[in-house]
Amino acid sequence: MKDLGISALDKLIDQLAQLPGIGRKTAQRLALFILKSDTQFASDLANAIINLKQNTHLCKRCFNIAEDDLCAICSDPTRDQHKICVVEDIVDVMAIEETHTYSGLYHVLGGVISPLAGVSPDQLHIQELIRRVQEEDIDEVLLAINPSTEGETTIIYISEQLKPFNVKLTRLASGIPIGSHLEYLDMATIGRAIQSRQELKKG
Prior knowledge:
Elements: H1 7-16, H2 24-36, H3 39-55, E1 57-58, E2 65-66, E3 80-87, H4 90-97, E4 104-108, H5 126-135, E5 140-143, H6 149-162, E6 168-171, H7 187-195, E7 198-199
Parallel strand pairs: 3-4, 3-5, 5-6
Antiparallel strand pairs: 1-2, 6-7
Helix pairs in contact: 1-2
């Protein structure tokens, strides 16, 4: 579809096309949908985006999304305060929460170690994880990191860093395809992988 030369429409298409998974044609369809919608819908959508940016930030404890200093999960006294599930990104927290099979806390790394992409351990929230294990009464760390080459590198690195501490290290059960991402797996698969998680032996 060729742009119509309408600057307001073209600008919206350009912005939408920057979203992950949104190509130019999809951005055009979304922009036209918004154009055809009533003014209230467009206003509500714009306000929701602004509200998200202005009123949310990263949790000071686990780096999940939060509206206060701590996220809703860290603030929930009914959660198991002795378990931490380590994930790559916030979207993985959402995927695991949908399974209703895990009731502990989380720790969001903000990525994985990737020398080729220039991502080193000190660019992730690994030191904060180590500090939590040191300072909090943690008895298990579940490494629920996406099964990729970079993910395996990250799991090995974190395992080495946590060796000195008296904490059980586990990982998701085998069966999740290599290279897959938790956000794209069905809830049953993720749930089984959590319930059947395997202990990592300390060398």
